[in-house]
Amino acid sequence: MLHYEAGGYNCLHQDIYGEIAFPVQLVVMLGQQGRDWEGGEFALVENVPRAQSRVEVITANQGHGIVFTTRHRPRKALVVFFRLTLRHGVSPVRRGTRYTLGIIYHDAK
Q: Is the pTM of this model over 0.85?
């Protein structure tokens, strides 16, 4: 369970725990943005080699999930694929409390 109150946020990061990390994660919204909180958008940042980073801001309704990669995702260049490094975080919550369920698959020895 993750929760952020007004002023709370989560810096851009990767959730890599243990020697083995599953390539995707899931976050499920347990409340509704606009009703239960303002702000607190989910941010996904791609670090593009030799270019500016690209950010995607995602909002989801209560009960909806966001599946995203843990560390890398493939991207096609002209003729070959390469790996983009991704990080995720949460923008500051301006009002209310944001609750989510975060599921990280990893080797928990």
A: yes
